[in-house]
Design brief:
alpha+beta, 36% helix, extended
């Protein structure tokens, strides 16, 4: 018996996941919120937080070679003059309008930032911010003159 004959064969194919525009926007925002949560937890622990990303370049032989580098992360949170910590949800490089013209969430203390981010992640997952994400995407397309 050959080695190939020992294998069980099937006609199954890999299904690609086709995401709608809303699902794709949610995934992007959820990924960014997860990075912000990592930044907050690292800040509370007093450690450094880095995200590695793979970049590719062509070497002298003409082959594409992958290498890792640290992704530059910007904090979406800051402390105002009254001592309150605020969080701004961003889509691209623009602040997301959450309710009317309001773009920031007051977290209160530094320790409460993580729970605010987790609450925002839940809201994004269930689709509560789909209208705001669609408006931000529309504004971005107008800015790029594609819409």
């Amino acid at each position: 018996m050959t080695a190939f004959a020992k294998l069980k064969l099937t006609t199954a194919t890999r299904k690609t996941e086709n995401l709608s525009a809303e699902q794709y926007a949610r995934q992007r925002v959820l990924g960014n919120l997860a990075e912000q949560l990592g930044l907050v937890k690292a800040m509370l622990d007093g450690t450094a937080f880095t995200v590695k990303q793979t970049r590719y370049k062509t070497d002298e032989n003409g082959e594409r070679v992958g290498y890792e580098r640290s992704k530059r992360l910007r904090q979406w949170f800051w402390q105002d003059t009254d001592g309150n910590w605020l969080l701004e949800l961003r889509y691209g490089n623009r602040a997301l309008k959450l309710s009317g013209e309001n773009t920031a969430v007051v977290a209160g203390t530094k320790e409460q930032l993580a729970s605010v981010i987790e609450t925002l992640m839940e809201a994004v997952t269930v689709g509560e911010l789909d209208k705001a994400l669609a408006a931000a995407k529309k504004d971005r397309l107008v800015m790029l003159r594609k819409g």
